């Protein structure tokens, strides 16, 4: 466990369907009563260590508890086969992480915020749309539409990926080990994310994180490539009842901003913010300070770190009508 003036930080775990999932838990050092908790997870084939601690530290410093976790099969979490991105399993991991967060001693179990970025941005919208009890949702550059993501990939790239994706999917039905592709690659490479500029942006994220290239695999089981077009969190946007902050990147060529903007219009209580950058821009300077400041502003307004306090002074004095002592207000 590490500690600071404002919060402590500890490596812990929770169990999701029998699999241990690793989590970094941040707790305010001197909470004034139970505090809200922000539950966070990484995007497509990433790990929680890639720039997400930068957000978690700011939330913790502002008085929030934070649970930042790796999905099963990824990062420091357990589960085989490795690097398997399965939507249903990841949603189960989210539910287990939220249950774990509610159990923390310092946490107000009724004030859970789900924070997701990229693919996880879609997950938090899905959870809220299916009735998960949440105080608020933050979806940063979220995947909201399978068809929109496929169109952004482009026909040529889709044709490069289809054979390995289909081969891995068919092999999975026969119990064969996964066939892997690079999670991020250079333009026109056989990689899940090979949009122009993606590789350079990913390398910068690694360079500005506390991990090194090679600490974890940078691949993904290829079967997700033929399934991603079927996953559209936007379908349940109208059913989201909690406040939602949706942050889009104007030049996003991975999770198109136009699709996420439609979700913001559909969700009953949403705030939409737009930034003039690409998909990876919000994680690093010069956009990161504004992006995280906007998140904190949203949280302070909708789920403040401390409940509203009644600052009126009370004293007990005689009730002259009854002769009994009763509370009075100054």
Q: What would you call the structural class? A: alpha/beta
Strand content: 25-35%
Overall outline: globular
Cα(first) to Cα(last) distance is: 45 Å
Helix tally?
Answer: 8
Report the strand count: 14
**What's the overall average pLDDT, rounded?**
91
Helix % is 25-40%
- Numbering strands along the chain, what is their spatial order in the largest sheet? 1-2-3-5-4-6-7-11-12
Oligomer class: single chain
Reported for the largest beta sheet, the result is: 9 strands, mixed
What sequence of helices (H) and strands (E) makes up the elements?
EEEEHEHEHEHHEEHEEHEHEE
- Which spans of ≥5 residues are poorly predicted at pLDDT below 50? 310-330
- Radius of gyration, Cα only, in angstroms? 22 Å
Describe this structure in words.
The chain is of the alpha/beta class and 330 residues long. The chain contains 8 helices and 14 strands. A hairpin with a 3-residue loop joins β1 (2-3) and β2 (7-16). The longest helix has 19 residues, at 155-173. It is globular and about 55 Å long. Residues 310-330 have low confidence and may be disordered.
